[in-house]
Amino acid sequence: MNKRVLITGAAGFLGSHLCDRFIKEGYDVVGMDNLITGDLRNIEHLFKYKEFEFYHHDVSKFIHVPGHLDYILHFASPASPIDYLKIPIQTLKVGSLGVHNCLGLALVKRARILIASTSEIYGDPTVHPQTEEYWGNVNPIGPRGVYDEAKRFQEAMTMAYHTYHGLETRIVRIFNTYGPRMRLNDGRVLPAFIGQALRGEDLTVFGDGSQTRSFCYVDDLIEGIYRLLLSDYPYPVNIGNPDEITILEFAQEIIKLTGTNQKIVFKPLPKDDPMQRRPDITKAKQILGWEPKVGRAEGLKITYEYFKSLPKEELYKQEH
Ligand code: NAD
Ligand code: UDP
After folding, report:
1. CA-to-CA separations, 95 to 62, 88, 229, 236, in angstroms, rounded
2. pLDDT for 260
3. Candidates 17, 18, 36: which one to mutate for ligand 1, based on the most atoms within 8 Å of Cβ?
4. CDD domains, alphabetically (predicted)?
5. Could you tell me the distance, in angstroms and rounded to a whole number, from the CA of residue 169 to the centre of ligand 1?
6. Does domain 4-182+216-242+275-293 have CATH number 3.40.50.720?
7. Considering the chain, what is the average pLDDT of its residues?
């Protein structure tokens, strides 16, 4: 019998890449999503496989999956600032009620569970680069609090199931990841800049652009997650690419990549926008033998080709 894995958030950017990976590895995959920020087109190529099933379901409500499950990967959650600011209550619910439902299901099925946490649990960090030991600097009642605190609660709940119930748990702290299947209009910086360049608009840098991020290509992230799931390490592990860049430099890179002559315009920095972010990946290297392989130049080229290949009307589509 094949190993069987439930992936929540399956129709999203990362969830759909995880579905691909597990199908490729010979698992039976149950995808679950309520499509609030996802898109069935990300997984439509999988419907031809008898090993793939899809449940249209909100994981903040009781989850019923017939049959055995070996693994659960909880990836359902809005992930971009404009998404979670638009649906703050659902964001808090999927990180709290949603993870509780997934943990309960894991217990019943005796499955191992991996949850998607985030570098956002470090907030606007005062320790740089961020190690897993750092507790973070989060404003609980600021606009980003709905996401950051949901994810912090999610980690606490997961550790409680591990210590109290002895559940096999894995926690991945994901740093900014990019690649094909990001939504052009999800507001995250990479699709925002590429969308602007393709439409011939100015690139909007928030603040003076001196804030930093460290961007990881999606294939590297998926490899790290796969290794973490199969490891025996129950505590949080950072997965990300430590190659740090300012947002202003990033805008300049995108202008060069797209061969456009767009100008850069400066807009106000959103409240509580973290000033610096870079993962310390010592743990991932030691425990998983993992480090990123795809440099930004290569990853951005692949991602740009993907965005260019989309139907033109996608470029002008409003937020849903
Ligand atoms: P995404 O928006 O593309 O995917 C999220 C998916 O979850 C969507 O398909 C959405 O419809 C689904 N979803 C949301 N609420 C749901 C609910 N209540 N029930 C069922 N499905 C629901 O975002 P993504 O970038 O793929 O992020 C996936 C996960 O990874 C999230 O948990 C996010 O917090 C985490 N993460 C992502 C990044 C990144 O850089 N992409 C960084 C850190 C953490
Ligand atoms: N950003 C920007 N212009 C945009 C969108 C985002 O300058 O059009 C900035 C944003 O303020 C932040 C960085 O890019 O400093 C990364 O933003 P994103 O939403 O991609 O990720 P997060 O802030 O969650 O790390």
Report:
1. 14, 11, 20, 16
2. 86
3. 36
4. UGD_SDR_e
5. 19
6. yes
7. 96
Question: Would you place residue 319 in the very low, low, confident or very high pLDDT band (cuts 50, 70, 90)?
Answer: low
Catalytic residues: 147
Question: Tokens 């995959």 label which residue?
Answer: 29
Cα-to-chain-centroid distance, residue 262: 29
Per DSSP, helices labelled H in the chain are 13-24, 81-86, 88-109, 145-165, 189-199, 218-230, 247-258, 282-283, 296-309, 312-315
* Closest ligand (CA of 182): 1
Domain boundaries, the chain: 4-182+216-242+275-293
ipTM above 0.90, yes or no: yes
Dist. CA 309 → ligand 2 center (Å): 24
How many other C-beta atoms are found inside a 10 Å radius of the C-beta of residue 298?
Answer: 11
75 CA distance to ligand 1 centroid (A)? 5
Q: Is the pLDDT of residue 142 over 60?
A: yes
Cα gap 279→176, rounded to integer Å:
10
